[in-house]
Write a structure and sequence with these properties.
By secondary structure, the protein is mainly α. Helix content is 70%, strand content 0%. InterPro entries: Capsule_biosynth_CapC.
Length: 156
């Protein structure tokens, strides 16, 4: 079975358990699975969290002079995270294109996923920055450990 599929499935289970046991969401139910697969690339995780923080701050500022609640807020968070993540991907891909043969574009840092930053930003808004960060990273570590235990350690 595909490691991404297993990681996402485990992430869903772990997210549900964290929500039920601790009352804290892991930044969107798919986020722990994606982060678990990228633990060997910590700068990707840091960059994704930074894009999430910028997304949250932008939407928070926009909401000061515009009415943004419910579905509008969710869509705006996801869309803003998508756009910022895409722009960051493009900016980071430019220098990677000029790399020599010994260094490839695969070694460059990148934002994880397309909707992941928006999901994390949404939970920054709903439950707080530190609660979300702690829960996302802990749940991701649990998923990574579960992947190791079942023998699906994959370095992509």
């Amino acid at each position: 079975m595909d490691p991404l599929t297993v990681a996402i499935g485990l992430g869903l289970v772990v997210s549900l358990l964290f929500t039920e046991a601790f009352g804290l969401a892991a930044g969107g139910m798919i986020v722990p699975g994606y982060f678990a697969l990228n633990f060997h690339r910590p700068m990707d995780i840091v960059l994704t969290l930074l894009v999430s923080l910028v997304t949250y701050l932008i939407v928070h500022q926009v909401s000061k002079f515009s009415i943004i609640y419910g579905r509008r807020r969710i869509v705006l968070m996801l869309l803003t995270g998508f756009v910022i993540g895409h722009v960051v991907r493009l900016l980071l891909a430019m220098p990677a294109m000029g790399m020599t043969s010994s260094a490839t574009a695969d070694t460059a840092i990148a934002v994880i996923g397309y909707i992941v930053p928006g999901l994390i930003a949404l939970w920054f808004d709903r439950q707080g920055l530190f609660e979300t960060l702690g829960t996302v990273l802990t749940a991701s570590a649990v998923v990574r450990l579960a992947l190791l235990v079942i023998g699906m350690e994959v370095l992509l």
